[in-house]
Amino acid sequence: MNLLIVDDEKEIGTFLSHLFSLKGFTVHKAVSANEFYQIDFTSHIFHAAMIDIKLPDGSGLALLKHLKKQQLRCQVLIMTGYSTIKTAVEAMKLGASDYIEKPFDDIEVLEKQVETLLKRTQSANPPYIHKLAKEAGMLIGKSPAMNQLVETTWKVAQKSVNVLIEGETGTGKEVLSRFIHLASPRRDDPFIGINCGAISESLLESELFGHERGAFTGATQQRKGFFEIAGSGTLFLDEIAEASSSIQVKLLRVLETREFMRVGSSQTLQTNARLVAATNDNLQQAVDNRTFREDLFYRLNVVTLELPALRERKEDIPLLIHHFIERNGQQSITFSPAALDKLLSYDWPGNIRELSNVVTRTLTFADQDSDISADDIVLSSCSPALISKAEKPSLNTTNHLKQWRNEKLADFNASNKINLENVLTEIKQLETDIGKEMVQQALQNTFGNRNEAAKRLHISMRKLRYLLNEKNKTDVKKS
């Protein structure tokens, strides 16, 4: 096995060369970027490389990119003594297989990392990754962007760092978080997900941290929170941007100290859970707008993974359709070329969730052994212009309101008296009915995503639930 070591500290290079030579490696050393670039990579084939991230005459990231272009299958371990974890993660995005922090406190750990790298090959990794993806409910497809994301995610999953997942509604943020959990050493521990935007502040605090008996009205017994239940597993917080300022403060404390207290208790508890957060908002913009804490943002933003929109990976649509057909157990049904063209030409504002709904709806009304035509497919009209129109009272509704008002005024003018309380009650009922219709229309346009519907209507989740007559209900919706 051939090993390349690039480090400007000669003592470290000599030590590593001696260590791995005794283990049977053929070691080649370089003490600078200039010396690295003089290597003839056509005649020297390396199975693994250890590259220092900071060299006096160059960047370890640049060396990594050059090496991966020359020898794609070479497994690279980045050595970092100066960089932050974010720099090491950037190296992994560029093709590094792992990183280790200097100085090396445990030589056995270093040896194990190098041996693990050599067990990996480009031909062996994909099947394993695809198996994990399938277990998580994710189809990777052919898209280069998606394949690169999954490979990076798999590497990041091995490390106990917080992860922030960004992506539009319906791109599969919770599915990716499950993949992180399954690909990590925590896979045998619990995975728990909660939507921060679909639950009230007081209840969210209790759900996350638990409560003691008598802590508030209705707390008839002690209850463990998700941080406690997750143990050493993974806690997924969806729509993290919707968390209140109070909840943000408490989350910051947990991330900084790994400690929390149940509601109504003074006892400090410990958590070892890994936090994965997700949002379809721009958190940096939320920080700039002072709606999200900057310190919490940086605690969450150790590693950011961005899911591509479906319109950016349309080559995967046929594979996704086949996946949904198999999932529904209707393999005898096929989609005609015209039907596929119709689906490929659509922009999919609701992303994979919308595609799943469209395919499922189409299959529901299809006969067995049928060939789906373009006319059989009904797509939702979700362009911004149409949504804006749908979420405003129609001209017909406005005319009805004017007619109702004119009739009431005419009645009052004719008799010079009217029961104003009854009129105000009717107005209140009309307000409720129209509000509920607008909410239902918004929910239809957002494929049932209540958080997104509330944003489009410029109302809170609490107001949305109230308009749906659910003020006494709690809805923890997954996105």
UniProtKB/TrEMBL annotation:
Sigma-54 factor interaction domain residues are 139-364
Response regulatory domain residues: 2-117
Listed Pfam families? AAA_lid_14, HTH_8, Response_reg, Sigma54_activat
Keyword terms, alphabetized: ATP-binding, Nucleotide-binding, Phosphoprotein, Transcription, Transcription regulation
> GO MF terms on file?
ATP binding; sequence-specific DNA binding
The record's annotation in SUPFAM superfamilies points to:
CheY-like, P-loop containing nucleoside triphosphate hydrolases
Query: Organism's domain of life?
Result: Bacteria
UniProt keyword annotation of Transferase present: no
Question: Keyword Membrane on this protein?
Answer: no
What's an example GO BP annotation here? regulation of DNA-templated transcription
What InterPro entries does the annotation carry?
AAA+_ATPase, AAA_lid_NorR, CheY-like_superfamily, HTH_Fis, P-loop_NTPase, Sig_transdc_resp-reg_receiver, Sigma_54_int, Sigma_54_int_dom_ATP-bd_1
4-aspartylphosphate PTM positions: D52
Q: What is this protein called?
A: Sigma-54-dependent Fis family transcriptional regulator
Q: Whose protein is this, by species?
A: Peribacillus psychrosaccharolyticus
